[in-house]
Amino acid sequence: LKLAAEYAPRVSFCMGNLNMTRYYAPDDRYNDTGVLMTVISEEGWEYTVPKELEFTYDNAKKVVEDVLAGNIEAKPYKTEEPPVQKKRVKRVVSTTFHDIVLDETKHSLIEFYSPYCGHCKALIPIYNELASRARNDPNIVIAKMDATANSVPRPFESRGFPTIYLVPKGKSVRPIKFEGSRTIEGFIEFMQENTKEELVFVEPEEKYLKKDQPKEEEGEGNTGSCSGDSAAGQCSAGKQEL
Fold first, then answer.
1. pLDDT value at position 84?
2. Cβ(88)–Cβ(67) under 8 Å?
3. Phi and psi at residue 228, to the nearest 5°
4. Residue 127: which H helix or E strand, with range?
């Protein structure tokens, strides 16, 4: 409480039982007293204080000072290696999210998906066609991220799959959650309504007009089944890691 009063409002402090939150941590991250000290950045990335460091006022104060001075860098708890971009739908991981999705010069549509989600698998051909139709507009980014293998940055949330947001271009914009019909027409209408300029969509390339779409690498070999709200067309995200 003393430390919190010292640094308010620059730093927020909270204490609680991790089992009561939607986050959890492996046992080897706790120190000998059963305390886990973690710093969460504005973006949602974390820095976990080494478990060897005793949880005292002076040690906690030193951590806070190092964070404010930029000596400690928070990182995603989990992330994949940045992929080679081979398709019109850009594949994003936690470490490339800011540069691709939050590019202030682009209108970005981002899908958080699970490779085990049947609704996500059903969306693949539609999402591919949407990216093909947007290919002539350099201001549009159509992207996706496996939210089971990558930490999701704030203020985005993925409590079910797929979860889709639009980030209009510009500074200090807030992401807008897509809750409409997952059709080409639904996505285009949503993007046009929430941007301040006319977007360019053209006819899709021939391969996206075929009924048999090429298989995507994610989800191959799994059943595509999931639990969740089938009426809403979403799989449950289940227990999430930070």
1. 87
2. no
3. 150, -160
4. helix 118-133
- State both tokens at 1: 């409480």
Pair 212, 128: CB distance under 8 Å? no
By the 8 A CB rule, do 228 and 11 touch? no
What pLDDT is recorded for position 33?
A: 52
Long-range contacts of 170-175 (CB under 8 A, 24+ apart): 170/104, 171/104, 175/110
> What is the length of the chain?
242
* Six-digit token string for 209: 């007009």
Task: Give pLDDT < 50 ranges for the chain.
Answer: 20-31, 212-224, 239-242
Residue 47, amino acid: Y
- Sign of the C-alpha dihedral computed for residues 158, 159, 160 and 163 taken in this order: negative
Question: What DSSP element (H or E) covers 133?
Answer: helix 118-133
**How crowded is residue 46: how many other Cβ atoms within 10 Å of its Cβ?**
17
Tokens of 174: 């807030």
Distance CA 148, CA 49 (A): 24
Question: Which pLDDT value is given to residue 228?
Answer: 56
- Determine the pLDDT at residue 231: 56
Instruction: Specify whether the CB–CB gap between 226 and 162 falls below 8 A.
Output: no
pLDDT of residue 145: 96
Which residues of the chain form beta strands (DSSP E)?
38-40, 46-48, 90-91, 107-113, 140-146, 160-161, 163-167, 176-177, 235-236
Which residues are paired to 236 by β-bridges?
A: 160
Query: Residue 209's CB: how many other CB atoms inside 10 A?
Result: 10
State residue 16's pLDDT score. 65
What per-residue confidence (pLDDT) applies to 54?
80
